Amino acid sequence: MTGIRVYDTLSGDKRTLEPIEPNKIRLYACGVTPYDNSHIGHARCYVAFDIVYRYLKLAGLDVTYVRNFTDVDDKIINRANERGMKAVDLAEENIQAFYRDMDALSIARPDQEPRVSTSMPQIIALIERLIGNGMAYASEGDVYYAVEKFQSYGKLGKRTLEDMQAGARVEVSEKKRHPMDFALWKAAKPGEPAWESPWGQGRPGWHIECSAMSMHAFGPCVDIHCGGQDLIFPHHENEIAQSEGATGQNFVNYWLHNGFVNVDNEKMSKSLGNFFTIKDVLQRYEPQVLRLFMVSTHYRSPINFSDAALDEAADRIAYFYETLRKLDAFLDQAGGVGAPFGPLPGEAFLEEFEARFREAMDEDFNTLRVLGQLAEAFKLANEVLMMRKAKQLPNALAAAKLLREKLAYADTVLQLFGADPADYLDRHKTKAAARRGLSLDWIAEKVGDRLVARSEKNWAEADRVRDELLAAGVVLMDGAQGTDWMVKDVRDAAPAAE
Ligand SMILES: [Zn+2]
């Protein structure tokens, strides 16, 4: 028994996570169909389950994470034909692009990543098993799952066969016994990749792969199976029917589904022109911005993607990194100052940090609460940085060290603070200036003009240039090392205090 409470879609409530095997977690996530670049819906889903994966590991569980690639699919075949290339090559190209996106977002690679094209023996064996126990039937080179044979079909989405039939676009076919029967195997069509099977040349239907791969990796039952809410029907409903229909055992103990991504309060779709790939977004924002944006909403709730929301996340991360840069500089410079005395600044907060983090994450991975905790940590960091009076120096230093440790602990899950602060801030400045349509040369020129005016003691002119920059969103920061600048993404935001 763990102390982690998880919302399970099937039972419809939050339950304490009890692993099948003590201390081990079998985690399966439905992967992508690599026919094109991945979009922000994928970012949402895989960031959400990366947080789950990393947190379960932090909680001391031995997690095995399996995520598939649907590399045999109509969309891949059609797109490959359009581009005059082999389906397998198109899939490989997009799998590599997917890795680039996932790596940029610090999404850990799963332990196993089975592909349909290399899982045919398991898929065919499972279909044979379903035919063998009467749950499926062969029909003119196809094989169909007989949904009426599975008593609890619809239990995940809590709908009857009739409800589902009314709401679904059912492919009418003479080959099927019931309109809702779905294909486990499809007979080969000319010009398509095909594999040898007991039913002739063909390829698997979409749903069977996840049952076959999950059972191959883990046996009949997994602890956690996750995916987007859009997969509940038909994909996950069918996975349950296939797996439980074959083994007679419960397939999944906890079903986790992430909420939809809307764009400017509308459903994201290519036809509405509000469709964003991860690659597009990462050209304009650092990956940490997208990751912070994704964890700013609970994973089960819908999230609303907009430039304004990303700008806000960009400003927030820049503030985090600005604070870290100062904190690191302080830690570098303030060595050998003697032992701290009396209570440290924020001592209670620092002592309780890990426990509070665990408490929030134990409650169905409540990253929102964790972000509240981070806000407190950075507020404390800035207070500590103000304590530069010699008498307070040892205590400030001890608290700064502890803060860095606590943030590193949280970051094993969050993955927001791994970059070098100075490098991050440089990249951020460049991208933030581009987002505002400002050239770095123009900013440098203006900063130079102001320096000249100041050296000539022409304060009116210096202020005028400063205000001109501020109106464009550039905030100047005068320090011991000269003048630095930041671009504020959120318009009319108060200038950063120095
Ligand atoms: Zn799946």
How many E strands?
Answer: 15
Q: Strand pairing plus helix content: what structural class? A: alpha/beta
CATH architecture of the largest domain: 3-Layer(aba) Sandwich
Oligomer designation: single chain
Helix content range: 40-55%
Which CATH top level class of the largest domain fits? Alpha Beta
Backbone CA Rg: 27 Å
Principal-axes geometry comes out as elongated
Distance between the termini: 48 Å
Sheet-strand content, in percent, reads 5-15%
Could you explain the architecture of this structure?
The protein has helices at 40-58, 74-82, 87-104, 120-132, 161-167, 208-218, 232-247, 278-284, 287-295, 307-333, 347-351, 353-362, 367-386, 393-414, 421-435, 440-455, 459-471, and strands at residues 5-8, 13-16, 24-29, 62-67, 136-139, 142-145, 182-187, 202-204, 222-228, 252-258, 261-263, 266-267, 303-305, 474-479, 482-487. The strands form 5 sheets. Strands 4-3-9-10 form a 4-stranded parallel beta sheet, with helices on both faces. The chain has a 4-stranded antiparallel beta sheet with strand order 5-6-7-8. It is of the alpha/beta class and 498 residues long. It folds into 3 domains: 5-258, Rossmann fold; 323-421, Four Helix Bundle (Hemerythrin (Met), subunit A), CATH 1.20.120; 436-487, no CATH class. Helices cover 48% and strands 14% of the residues. It is elongated, with a radius of gyration of 27 Å. Zinc ion (ZN) is lined by residues 30, 210, 235, 239.
